[in-house]
Specification:
GO terms for molecular function: serine-type carboxypeptidase activity. The protein is of the alpha+beta class. The chain contains two helices and three strands.
Amino acid sequence: MKLPIKDPWRAWYSDKQVGGGYVVGYGALTLVTVRGAGHMVPTYQPERALLMFSSFLCGKLPPPS
């Protein structure tokens, strides 16, 4: 899609623990992964899923550390 990178690739953290996953921002598109989760993220990683969704609702990226 050749979108410009707005926020470079980085790890994000859940409750100061081991990385929650990775995030990268491309203009109006953001890709967020959740470490240790299957295709049903809230079932496998509920705390990380809540943090990711809350960040989305606030219009922010998940916290870097």
